[in-house]
């Protein structure tokens, strides 16, 4: 499909961005410091937000206005252009405080990466500028009701622009966003990412996410009924996977970071609870749970696995940093990045589930009381880690190292 229109960008009248004035982060160090500060602010009410399903509007405004949602914008466009190691650590830091909050900007960062790889210079200037001003991008990528993984949300030409019609689900962040990057297909089944203003006529967002974890991510449904889209709001998507690019491993790195943070949060909660509340087992012969030898063995086990997961997470970030430095990545370098991230995803998944489970095994029955809501760590990890199965990560890694078969290029590996 040949996109029509003039090479300029303009904001729709329905989007008021005149009051957006987010902080501009200048360095990796500043991004990490701000993430730690926000995590300290977000943590105290995380249990209540999850238990009562209180949507985090105020927290999200602080989050996006802090400038952290713009840290991946390249320096040539006014951003900090932080490393992937820093990006992963920022997400993990927030996730340790509140796993739901950490997932909400995931697809915002993803959209910016799709833009970096496939957008025009004019599109980059416009949408990067919005991100730096604190504007939030959500997502409308996935569709349910079909088993063939084919997208059915249509992009249809009309006059000097296009219309979008379709139904999406698992739309994390769309509820809170000013723009909704939407995966659409044309009559040739070529796919594009259409950036659609949240308040456009024909856009309907339904807060119908009722999963037992990640309760306040806003991962519900979005309906598009003949929604008008300007040509300059449309970025190639399929073309960015037809050739070797960083989009796939980048997307997976974000998932790894969320899981790593959830593991950290559960582990820190375990240490606190054991020190302050847990009782030693009667046969341990000690006066404090923190001196129970079998409990100490379990704590050490989680510690080692968490350290290993974080080491692989940071290694994957460094591999992605090197990949992004290549003007034209080849299939081999993208495969190496995908495998590195897949290795990290295996361990971050496993340790997130392990830490959430060990929190109860080591803390005892009193930790299950409803007012504490400590089960949110396991629930959040269990739901989020279902995004893409770890068994296929093992397969991809094994097939690569043994048979030199490059893994497929898509956002779920």
From TrEMBL:
Protein keywords: Oxidoreductase
Q: Which residues form the Acyl-CoA dehydrogenase C-terminal domain?
A: 253-388
What Pfam families has UniProt attached to this entry? Answer: Acyl-CoA_dh_2 (PF08028), Acyl-CoA_dh_N (PF02771)
Gene Ontology process terms (BP):
fatty acid beta-oxidation using acyl-CoA dehydrogenase
Molecular-function annotations in GO? acyl-CoA dehydrogenase activity; flavin adenine dinucleotide binding; oxidoreductase activity, acting on paired donors, with incorporation or reduction of molecular oxygen, reduced flavin or flavoprotein as one donor, and incorporation of one atom of oxygen
Q: Where is the Acyl-CoA dehydrogenase/oxidase N-terminal domain?
A: 34-126
Enzyme Commission code(s) on record: 1.-.-.-
InterPro entries listed in its UniProt record? Acyl-CoA_dehydrogenase (IPR050741), Acyl-CoA_DH_C (IPR013107), Acyl-CoA_Oxase/DH_mid-dom_sf (IPR046373), AcylCo_DH-like_C (IPR036250), AcylCoA_DH/ox_N (IPR013786), AcylCoA_DH/ox_N_sf (IPR037069), AcylCoA_DH/oxidase_NM_dom_sf (IPR009100), S04_starv_induced_SfnB (IPR023922)
What is this enzyme's class at the first EC digit?
A: oxidoreductase
List cellular component terms (GO). Answer: cytoplasm
Q: Per the similarity annotation, which family is this?
A: Belongs to the HpaH/HsaA monooxygenase family.
From the Swiss-Prot or TrEMBL record, give the protein name.
SfnB family sulfur acquisition oxidoreductase
